[in-house]
Amino acid sequence: MLRIGSIDLKTQKIDTLIVPVCEDKKIHDDRLINGVIKKALKLKEFKAEKGDRVTLYDFKDLATERIICVGLGKFKKIDHEVLRTFCGAIVNRCIQAGFEKIWVAVPAAEKLKMEMPDAVEAMMEGACLGNHVFDKYKKEKKKKPLKQINFRVKPEASGKLRKIPPKVSTICAGTILAREWISTPSNEKTPEHFTRSIVSKARKHGLKTRVLREKDLKQNKFGALLAVAAGSQSKPSMVVLEHKPAGAKKTLALVGKGVTFDSGGLNIKTGDSMAAMKSDMSGAAVVAATMITLARLKTKSHVIGAIPIVENMPSGKATRPGDIVRSYAGKTIEIGNTDAEGRLILIDAMSYVVKKHKPQIMIDLATLTGACVVALGEKIAGVFTPDDDLAEAIIASGNKTHERCWQMPMPDDYKELLKSDFADLNNMPSSRWGGAITAALFLSEFSGDTRWAHIDIAGPAYFKKGGAYCGPGGTGFGVRLLCDLIEQL
Ligand code: BES
Ligand code: ZN
Ligand code: ZN
Question: Which of 183, 381, 448, 453 is the most exposed place for a label (fewest CB within 10 A)?
């Protein structure tokens, strides 16, 4: 669906050409395209400000039916994210217009002051992600994704860029897979359903899979995980995926929170705060989709994906506030609040991974706390780790992929807040302030000697309203970041 080509606009008949235009600098070096831009800029309604758009027809010296000029804004502000956003937004418009095929005129890299492959990659990402339509539950499928998005480059550049379209397609397919899992409603995504869906997709792409079912979890004393699952009619599981290429030296582990619905349990949530809780398995979706993507990309590293899956419901069998449970690692936990369930399933998964797989690095992703959303808003994730080098690597990959992360502190003295009068720890901190930090400190008690980082994605995992290259619903935040990070580590 994504393609690179170098057509002659004079002779080759095409329907739609998209031309990005900068407000205050020439960024194309094609004479014909610059001619069209000159014409567009003469129009009162087009100043090439960010988001400006004008369609031109009837060209004497071009075989193109229509050219849509799109403003990128000021040169100083153009970065990879501006390119991603421009492509996502225009693909959206073209879907709405009912187009099937478009060509995008790629600006000259020298003029953009960017590396050509990076610029093309960003544009392709925006286009590919923006071309996703989630209409599984609609009777009328009004919006059809574009069949072909072509990027026009100079003939001498196309060879070097050959590998980009398949790579971008594979990684974006991972993001889209995570998005669809997250947007799936919880009635069609019980722990049993979700487990099956992950395993069947993972096997199809050649990952080694192992599922610990309720019986195994009981036998192996996953007490914290089982306490969360107790109130649900659905049975919990833990899925372990493994990508093990020959010759890999280091082992990396990813752990993802998989709460298919978080009602809060007996400490039940109120209306508004429960509404989007089908997305409380975003960490799990992102880890599973990343594992599948790594397998498809034939990544060189050995990676384990551990995914604890439960539903958090109130019932006569549900765990009560005040109950004390014994975690897989042996530490006892007083359940101060059944809505702080994410940390309970994560610590059992983390302890299991550390014990069985002894990874050099372990990273967990979780929609863990509302407090993290208060701190950083809906577009930035919190990174918590005692390892500043690991934080730096995560943040760098986040900046590159625009899945932005911000390092948060892990002050030792805040551990006070997790003390229990009766057990080793309380899952509910004694202060409501700094809730994202105390949640991370709780997890840190179970990372052992492993280099570990926790990414709280409660904000960016789910959009109520869509953006330029992501519709409303699951965002798949983390897949692109992790794919980049694993290549770097
Ligand atoms: N799943 C929620 C966190 C959440 C909130 C995710 C908003 C996405 C958007 C988590 O299980 C939870 O309920 N956390 C509590 C913890 C508290 C009881 C210590 C919270 O954040 O209020
Ligand atoms: Zn909760
Ligand atoms: Zn939760």
Answer: 448
Backbone angles phi and psi of 388, in degrees to 5:
-65, -30
Report in angstroms the alpha-carbon separations of 252 from 31, 238, 297, 306, 453: 50, 18, 16, 11, 12
* Atom 7 of ligand 1: nearest residue by CA position: 370
471 CA distance to ligand 3 middle (Å): 23
* Model pTM score: 0.98
Residue 313 CA, ligand 3 centroid: distance in Å:
11
Q: Is the pLDDT of residue 455 over 90?
A: yes
The number of the ligand 1 atom at minimal distance from the alpha carbon of 428 is 19
Q: Which residues lie below 8 Å from residue 154, measured CB to CB, with a gap of 6+?
A: 6, 108
Catalytic residue status for 451: no
pLDDT in tens, 69-100: 999 999 999 999 999 999 999 999 999 999 99
Question: How many Å lie between the centroid of ligand 2 and the Cα of residue 338?
Answer: 7
Residue ranges in 13-107 assigned as alpha helix (H): 31-41, 80-97
Helix (H/G/I), strand (E/B), else coil: 101:
strand
pLDDT higher than threshold 90 for residue 109: no
What stretch of H or E contains 352? helix 342-357
pLDDT bin (cut points 50, 70, 90) of residue 183 is very high
